[in-house]
Amino acid sequence: MSKISVKGLRKSFGSNEVLKGLDVEITEGEVVCVIGPSGSGKSTFLRCLNKLDELSAGTVIVDGFNLSDKTVDLNEVRQHIGMVFQHFNLFPHMTVLQNIMLAPVELKKQSTADARATALKLLDRVGLADKASARPAQLSGGQKQRVAIARSLAVNPDIMLFDEATSALDPEMVGEVLQVIRDLAAEGMTMVVVTHEMGFAREVADRVIFMADGVIVEEGTPAELFGNPQQERTQDFLSKVL
Amino acid sequence: MRKLNIFRAGKLAVAVTALLALAGGFVGVSAAAASQPQSAVTGETYVIGTDTTFAPFEYRENGELTGIDMDLIRDIAANQGFTVEIKSLGFDAALQALQSNQVDGVIAGMSITDERKLVFDFSEPYFDSGVQMAVAEDNTEIIGYSDLAGETVVAKRGSEGETFANSIKDEYDFTVKALADSATMYDDVKAGNSVAVFDDYPVLAYGINQNNGLKSVTEKEQGSSYGFAVNKGQNPELLAAFNAGLAELKDSGEYQAILDTYLEQPAPAAASGFFGLLGDSLPALMKGLGLTLLATGLSILIALVLGVLFGFFKVSESRVLRGLASGYVSIFRGTPLLVQAFFFYFGLPQLTGQSIDVLTAGVLTLSLNAGAYMTEIVRGGIQSVDPGQTEAGRSLGLGYVTTMRRVVLPQAVKIMTPSFINQFVMTLKDTSLLAVIGFAELTYQGQQIYASNFRTGETLLIVAALYFIVINLLTMLSNKLDKRFNK
Question: In terms of residue numbers, what domain contains B165?
Fold first, then answer.
């Protein structure tokens, strides 16, 4: 069953066209990693999936919601799609627990007490049960990103988007974050992961998409794409990063 | 004479006076007086309006209204067996109150003019004024107009003194400089910036009496006469009693004694020391300080509302709202506060025909002005919060308003607080500019005090010290609150 359906997606910033017509189908439970050089449009593609960036042309249907339809309640759609950012974007004026509880309580999905219980459970799941009352400033980068993942999971999304979630981390902290994403994959979460971690993509992805200059150059299973890339640009890119 | 040109037969006088009555908390009492038999003023109480400060005719000494006008009306009342209740309203307001029968009479160093005779009935003249020239006490070179060749003299802007000086300046070849008030003019002469001053004879005589460091060197020029006024056709018995009492005081020599008290009598023994001045002036200054704080508080509150409103307009996606906010900010940041104050107090009533009281005009000016700066503070605060914060909030499914309220604003407020405190202090200091429109705040009170005692330097030191203390106390308090709530 198709969870995300993208057809002819184009996105321009002023006169600069960043996405030049993308077609992607992602089925339920699939883990798709998007790789490619900087400026290839990977992050913009991801941000179009929950409409943090407006679409210039084409259609995006996520979890049955057509994002081009003006009557669709974006806030409702976004509760189905969690997003994790490169720079964590934790709310610095709140404790870890308040960060996680904010959305469920504000959206009236849970009572404060239930939200607290859920938040503590999620913190336990990402290995940070003891940091509930800490402020983001007191955490390491890896810990912050794990809290950010817990925060996204608190609204119980069907889909998770990761936008270079480990790029801003010191090398020794990358592993702990990838482990959390790996666990989510194992639980059957539908995920789109923009990443520079080729080893991780090879290990976890069901499918890898290689983007360059706003188009999808090549896609396939990790074995196909990493083992036997067909396109010259793919080969060129992989030869530099592997 | 300063009061020749300010008369306005406004149709709105009634409304204005009602407003003033509310503000001043007094109630008109003229109805009872009008119903009495005309001959009987005995036992009656009349409400008399006057100016705030026009030394030596009316001014406050130790908080009490005193001066030639005050002594005269009180003595005439005693002589004729009626009592007076004095309302110190300000010159224009007193005339408006008289027109709407909120007061029964006005005595305020008012010149008798044909224009005023159309709406008021005047008593016999009780004082003949005129312009006189004075120089510094130690100046022995200037003893007449002919010694002024090539020199600069000073006169009060818009006064009869200025008119007179200008009328003879070509003949005697001197330059006339205009200043706003008597105390400043006298300081200018003492400092040697001007060699002589042309001022109203009684004002000048009073200043010399108060050891202002000047001496008069010419006879007074023929000028206008002052009269006591009642509303046209109203209170004729009061007018008659005033004339009768005035005649009796003149006969008994009491009238001359009053004039001598203020104009001729040698100066009182050495002026009181600095602490005497402090003690004498503090009650009036504290009243001014109260108004300063009131105007600041009201203005900052309104400015905060305006700042938040237009600040949000500035960061909104609507081009119209952004344009509106930008227009507002550029108008009020792009013009001087002083011009804005003049506009709201003097200009706006002329354009709309709607009078405005000085507190309203002052608060309007300050709040609109501070609001423009607040708008920029709010905009800057919101925009300095990392956009990733908004994206994180929105990606969780939170709406724009919720994201603003729970995520962006708490961080923005923390960033804005020091700027808010700064603006608060600026606005408090800016209230002093409202002295020019006659708002009786701290600086105005200080000016009133040295206008009658001529101790400019000491009085301003006290005023500055009061600002300094209050501003620093409030800053300390604000910073404490900031630390406490914005950890």
Answer: 128-226
